[in-house]
Amino acid sequence: MRVRVTLACSDCKQRNYNTMKNKKNDPERIEMNKYCKFCHKHTLHKETK
Ligand SMILES: [Zn+2]
């Protein structure tokens, strides 16, 4: 049930994080507020394929 996903900054589109999600808990694409070292601030990171 656990799948690996990549999180990309919604501002600069850099892929900054790899994480695991539980498909049962998160059937949709996940979005997380994380620090982007390219934007030098916290931005919304979204799951990519
Ligand atoms: Zn960014």
Overall tally of structural domains: 1
Ends: how far apart?
Answer: 17 Å
Average of per-residue pLDDT values:
96
Number of strands: 4
**Proportion of residues in β-strands:** over 45%
CATH fold description: Rubrerythrin, domain 2
Which CATH class applies here?
Mainly Beta
Shape field:
elongated
The small molecules bound here are: zinc ion
Order of strands across the widest beta sheet? Answer: 2-1-4-3
**Helical stretch tally:** 0
The main β sheet shows up as: 4 strands, antiparallel
The amount of helix comes to under 10%
| CATH homologous superfamily designation | Ribosomal protein L33
Poorly predicted parts: none
Structural class: mainly beta
Radius of gyration: 11 Å
The ordered string of helix (H) and strand (E) elements is EEEE
Short description:
It comes from Clostridium collagenovorans DSM 3089. This protein is mostly beta strands and 49 residues long.
Give the SSE map.
Blueprint: E1 2-9, E2 15-22, E3 31-36, E4 41-48
Antiparallel strand pairs: 1-2, 1-4, 3-4
Bound molecules: zinc ion (ZN).
Describe this structure in words.
This protein has no helices and four strands. It has about 50 residues and is mostly beta strands. The protein has a single domain (about 1-49), classed as Ribosomal protein L33 (Rubrerythrin, domain 2, Single Sheet), CATH 2.20.28. β3 (about 30-35) and β4 form a beta hairpin. The model has no long low-confidence stretch (mean pLDDT about 95). Zinc ion binds near residues 11, 14, 36, 39 and 43.
